[in-house]
Amino acid sequence: MLDIDPLAINDIVRDASVKALALFRTNGVDVQNKLAGGFDPVTHADRMIESNLRFKLRELVGELPVIGEEEGTTGDPSAGYAWIIDPIDGTRAFISGQPQWGTLLGLLHDGQPLGGWLHLPVLHETFWALGDSFGVRSPTTTRFGTSECTRIADATMLSTDPAMFAGELEKAFARMVAAVRLTRYSGDCHNYGLLASGDVDLVVENQMQPYDILPLIPIIEAAGGIVTDGHGAPILSGGSVVAAATPQLHEQALNVLNS
């Protein structure tokens, strides 16, 4: 077992985002587009955070394979331990002055999610889970644990953007909106923190990359929730996500999506 102090990782993730926070809502953010057709923004802050994390993690535990959104994959992450990094989850929120962006870091073992860290710089919140160590540091809550919601008709659901769902998936998501009590949009990675702290009951999304979701799975599971793809299978390659507070709610959500 790799000897890692999860609280030391908390500090590394928090410190890596300090310079990005200094650029937030200023004119100092350069925005580039990673797509020839469409818009997938990246900023100097994204690259700066990932570079800093790679350096600090290497200092702490030595050389491990890394899957990073901006710098790609180094080493072979399929066997043994590896890191997975999304330096700014919610770059669109970051460049739009919205506060829900965050830094995601995951620890994988043989390709499976083992540990996860979610840091929300503007909100000063950090969620983490690794082995027997899990929790939240926040100025507004100490609660770590999913809600007890078991009925989809009582559920509050979050999703970053309904445009994630197209074709038949658009119809499936519309059924979810009709089934739950309340649906709210935007949020990015913050949605999963709100699920882990029991503020909401369900997060349903699509078109996720592995670095968008794998770091969050250990956090949701440690809080008592369940995370799968839209058909109930484990998520290793991204795609669709159904994250629920309870097994009963998760089962109902899958039934609605796939009916």
CATH top level label of the largest domain: Alpha Beta
Write down the overall mean pLDDT: 95
- Fold-level CATH name of the largest domain: Fructose-1,6-Bisphosphatase, Chain A, domain 1
| Name of the CATH architecture of the largest domain | 2-Layer Sandwich
How many helical elements? Answer: 9
Structural class: alpha+beta
Estimate the global geometry from the Cα principal axes.
globular
Strand content: 25-35%
Residue runs with pLDDT of under 50 for 5 or more positions: none
Counting structural domains, the number is 2
Largest sheet: 7 strands, mixed
Instruction: Please bin the fraction of helical residues.
Output: 25-40%
Cα-to-Cα separation, first versus last residue: 42 Å
Strand tally is 14
Secondary-structure element sequence? HHEEHEEEHEEEEEHEHEHHEEH
Characterise the protein shown here.
- The chain is an alpha+beta fold and 259 residues long.
- The protein has two domains: 6-137, 2-Layer Sandwich (Fructose-1,6-Bisphosphatase, Chain A, domain 1); 152-257, D-Maltodextrin-Binding Protein, domain 2 (3-Layer(aba) Sandwich), CATH 3.40.190.80.
- It is 31% helix and 28% strand.
- It has nine helices and 14 strands.
- It has helices at residues 6-16, 18-23, 44-61, 91-96, 168-179, 190-196, 210-213, 217-222, 247-257, and strands at residues 31-33, 41-43, 66-68, 72-74, 81-89, 102-109, 112-120, 125-130, 133-137, 156-159, 182-185, 202-208, 226-228, 239-244.
- The strands form three sheets. A seven-stranded mixed beta sheet has the order 4-3-5-6-7-8-9, sandwiched between helices. Strands 11-10-12-14-13 form a five-stranded mixed beta sheet, sandwiched between helices.
- Helix 1 packs antiparallel against helix 3 (44-61).
- The longest helix has 18 residues, at 44-61.
- The radius of gyration is 17 Å and the shape is globular.
